[in-house]
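Take our chain:
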Amino acid sequence: MEQRSFDGEQRRIHTYKRDGDVSYALGAAPAFELLKKRPDKARRVFIHSAWERGDASRELFTLCRGLGIEPEERDKAFAVLSQKENCFVIGEFEKYQSALDPAQTHVVLVNPSNSGNLGTIMRTALGFGVHDIAIITPAVDMFDPKTVRASMGAIFSLRVKCFSSFAEYSASADCGVGRGFYPFMLKARTELGAKPLARRCSLIFGNEATGLPDEFLRVGESVIIRHSTDIDSLNLPMAVGIALYEWRKGIGKF
């Protein structure tokens, strides 16, 4: 993609860079989540001149005022940062590191490769009350604006951390000790729902195209989600959603 930029009063705005120190929440909903859940990382807010003023804009200005941020009406910023015609608010934020809570259940994603899928999984995990996601690299960029937008801002309510290998994750303080490990695999022998999942566990999923390698058959208790033979597999966000539903059903209501 051709890199574009424009000169602002404070500093130049560039097309998002993975190795940069900032990212962008594209859209009103993700921007609101940024300002409410990670206000310490919010740096700037851009609004489009076509954004209809009303209750939402008043709330945005109130939030920004409380953080000492002056929203900038800069249509050119949208031409640089967003390819969506229905994007009228952009929140700029500083990238940050998180530590996982070893006392909580984790979703573990091994080499996820699609920004939209990762964002959808983030939102689904939050919906089922899971706030910790481990990503095994190489992987798609968790701070890519496409990921942030697909999560609808859920990323700002989560603890997400990258690890160079599953071994690094499982041996880390972030993982803790005494948790159940459940790799979801087509070769697994235990069917999801046959027995309750541990209250504190790691639900482990592979890449969208290749799934988990066979070595994960030796990790914890591998699980399969049964489906008809009319398809070869479920897509990754669907599989994660089904697993999270079963886990939540087993531990009870929120």
